[in-house]
Amino acid sequence: MSRPESLAPMISPQTAPGAVRSPKTAELVARTLRRMVVEGQLQDGDFLPHEAELIAHFGVSRPTLREAVRVLESERLVEVRRGSRTGAKVCVPGPEIVARPAALLLALSGTTLADVMTARTAIEPPAAKMLAEDGTVEAHDELRRLVEAVPAAWEAGNLAAASAQLHRRMVELSGNATLGIIAGMLHEIGERHTAAAISGATPDNTVAKTEYTKLHKSYVRLADLVESRKGEAAETHWRRHMVAASAAMLRGHERTRVRDIMD
């Protein structure tokens, strides 16, 4: 974890708000620091420059600077340890920063699990194609490991977590950042939905065992197609998989809403 030695090389006079005196000064300071994170000038784990240096550079008061830092803290771009001498540490967020608010919005709007499954079916097959055609060898290897992490025998709790992680990472590994963020937003909902859908099944349930066998074979097939870089085939296979999975997971949950499975 590092701390920039000086702000001068990192902030140009054109972008720094300097000694602006207005009700929006804190927002202007926050905007400049935010841009430094977005552009990689401040990276995950770095500390913001010392308070005195920031005050001198921006020409603002200590309360204004602290308000700017609080803005970044509310956005979860920095972490401030009260009473610590190290200052504010940069924390580059992942999809989790929007996952909970997104789930809350879906819950408040009365969104059904069927609606969520329709959205997932729309984004996952194209992601499978992109992963097959453009994914790196490392990405393909990770997908294979995710498939292998799915329990070889019926384990309801572990199956839900492993399956949800596979779906999420498959989209993230496709290389499309927008789709990856959406998949991350829906991850917890997907995991809870899967857990709810299989909660009543037991290892000696013939139907459950048969469907599980099909599920595992489908995952293996996806990994095979992706590694072979057969994009069209991977997309077609995964669309069929998602349609079948939707039918199975929504059985008994046709009208279940997101709010019904979230805390």
Automatic annotation (TrEMBL):
UniProt xrefs under InterPro entries: GntR_C, TF_FadR/GntR_C, Tscrpt_reg_HTH_GntR, WH-like_DNA-bd_sf, WH_DNA-bd_sf
CDD domains documented for this protein: WHTH_GntR
Membrane-spanning segments: none
Domain HTH gntR-type: 23-93
Signal peptide: none
Keywords: DNA-binding, Transcription, Transcription regulation
Gene3D superfamilies xrefs: GntR ligand-binding domain-like, Winged helix-like DNA-binding domain superfamily/Winged helix DNA-binding domain
SUPFAM superfamilies: GntR ligand-binding domain-like, Winged helix' DNA-binding domain
Any GO MF annotation of the entry: DNA-binding transcription factor activity
Region of interest (Disordered), residue spans: 1-23
Record's keyword annotation contains Transmembrane: no
SMART domains (UniProt xref): FCD, HTH_GNTR
Pfam family, one: GntR
Superkingdom of source: Bacteria
Name under which the protein is recorded: DNA-binding transcriptional regulator, FadR family
Source organism: Mycolicibacterium rutilum (Mycobacterium rutilum)
